[in-house]
Write a structure and sequence with these properties.
Blueprint (H helix, E strand, L loop, with lengths): L2 H25 L9 E6 L2 E2 L3 E4 L2 E3 L1 H13 L2 E6 L5 H6 L5 E2 L7 H4 L3 E2 L4 E10 L7 H6 L4 E4 L3 H7 L12 E4 L2 H9 L5 E5 H10 L3 E3 L5 E5 L2 E2 L4 H16 L2 H9 L5
Parallel strand pairs: 1-5, 1-6, 9-10, 9-11
Antiparallel strand pairs: 2-3, 3-4, 6-14, 7-14, 8-11, 8-12, 8-13
Helix pairs in contact: 2-9, 2-10
The structure holds glutamine.
Amino acid sequence: MNSFAKKVIATVLTAAMAFSFAACSTKSEGMTIEEGKLIMATNAFFPPYEYYEGETITGIDAEIAQAVADKLGLELVIEDVSFDSIIAGVQSGKYDIGCAGMTVTESRLQSVNFTSTYATGIQSVIVAEGSEITDVDTLLAGDYIVGVQSGTTGDIYMSSSVEDGGVGEDRVDRYARGNDAVVALMSGKVDAVVIDNEPAKAFVAANEGLTILDTAYAEEDYAMAINKDNQELLDAVNGALAELEADGTLDAIITKYIPAES
Ligand code: GLN
């Protein structure tokens, strides 16, 4: 090989290396399960965070995750699964992120990492209009059956013992979707539903004869769940969230779905 050819090869190699380094730093090869994709698990029956509009899943979480994916140069893929399978799926490497109006809790932190908080929620109590349950204390003290969405914080709080502020397992009826619990409330199968405040408002607005108690049950922070071994993705998503917070995108998305109360 003459020296010119060697030089050409060397130059090509250097260029290729520089190119692959550049590709690495922008695309972060191997950061997600499938190259170029961000696979998000959610349960799309939780308006206004995630719900179907025709065939498409939309809502606050869908839009925030889309904005994060755009920042990271990834294609967002949303999978609609049962809420109580999201953490396990993130943990086992089935999904890159769990984004489902998910509350950060100590026990979930044993299984997954959470990104920075992008929204807050409150546990609300829905009852039938005219119900004798007029506040949380009445609900806890009476012999009432409470409907919850399986595996949610509403379920966890309510299923705990009376001493711990719940009503105990025996008085809790679990449903796969929040909406199923609301249907049970309307047919009188349960006396109250404990669920996050924004879905509670959406369910009450969509169904006659329901009301939300004034007294809230618990305040919570929402964040995205990420596999504990994927620090790179956690840092990348947190970086994207910080930028989206700073430029007002997060606020704009949230107020689009939850207009400020006047
Ligand atoms: N915020 C609640 C939780 O994390 C409910 C979330 C949901 O039902 N999507 O448990």
